[in-house]
UniProtKB/TrEMBL annotation:
Belongs to the bacterial solute-binding protein 1 family. GO terms for cellular component: periplasmic space. This is Carbohydrate ABC transporter substrate-binding protein. Keywords: Cell membrane, Lipoprotein, Membrane, Palmitate, Periplasm, Signal. The keyword Signal applies.
Amino acid sequence: MKSKVIGAVTLAVAAVGLFAAAAPAFAQQKTITVWWGKGFYRSEDDALLDTIKKFEAKTGIKVELSQYAIQDMIPKTVAALDAGTVPDVAYSDTYDVQAQGKWAYEGKLEDLTDVMEPIKDRFVQNTLDASILYNDVTKKKAYYGFPLKQQSMHVQIWNDMLEKAGFKQSDIPTDWEGYWTFWCDKVQPGIRKATGQRIYAVGQPMGVESTDAFQSFYTFMDAYHVKLVDDDGKLLVDDPKVRDGLIKALKDYTDTYIKGCTPPSSTTWKDPDNNVAFHNKTIVMTHNFTISIAAKWYEDSQNQALTQEQRDAGKKAYEQDIITASFPKAPDGSTIRYRSDVKTGLIFTAAKNKAEAKQFISFLLQEENVRPYIEGALGRWFPVTKESQASPFWQADKHRKAVHAQFTGGTAPFDFTKNWKFTILNNENVWAKAMNRVVSEKVPVDKAVDELIARIKQVAG
């Protein structure tokens, strides 16, 4: 299959090349529509706008950009698909997790092999793998998306709060059981005694509307080496070892709540809420699928609209008080291999200006354009190209160094890249529902896991 795809590429690349060479001569009145998720930081959006201006000047193609809040992108895109009025290029942080595999399966996405094949050597292999999806109409896998950036799991800790509780970073155990016991049994009573406030040691995302909840739970599953699908996407949940691992992972995840070590509201948290709790110092640590928590304080330190006192507070928090760390060792003593969520953009088969849209993607993915966009996110996203990963940006401070070390240590893909039906399970957030069955409805952990397995089989079997 792969050789057939590659064999078809030569003519496609030649055709695109001919078009690109001639484009400025007749594309003056061409306009492409681009829908893009709104960035977290102004520098991120400014880098995208700068690339668009350069693209317009070079090609004569006008880019009509619309940016939307992340939570609005999927509903707007689904409505556009139903109406037949899709944008020419689309990108959202949520596409890959919630919809892209399904759209590829249904034949709604354009094959981008002619864009990606000539430049694939510039990209890290795991990011290419995440972009190759199965199309049930053509009965083949191909690049039904382009990799743009990626994220993984990190732990954020208030070092000053840890010290106030009577501990230092070197006191944090590295073994699995000792690690969680340390936060619940030592840090929490320590910080409460020192402050007289009802501070919680851990921020454990458990909300059904939180992607943090399912991403964090995957890390707990990985600690127990739970493998839900094989490389072909076939379910493995009937294996008793998988069930046993799920029970242990769910028990450990929910025990933090049952022991009173995470805020009661964490069962209803949405994605920003563990960040907010951390910033407000109502929790000492949390796990988060980017370093957006630390990056917020860096942005404060650079924000000229803030007072000098606020900028100084941001600088102190980023450089001194916040620790970016990894999870402890797995229960068997091995190092957890983290999941990488590779964020991908797309072109729909129903797009009206596909040739010009491919030109735009090719331009965006050039190193001098994609790097400022990724680095404009202040460390929140990690690059997908080899050259950008070697950028001095990732050695500039302790937080970025921690991210670099975690990614270059090797990552694993999420199950939805192998079985697109897991996007449905992620949308439902069956993982957080299982947590809430245990902590809110007092269902035994093994029963909640059996319900979880039954739902996985019903949807993805």
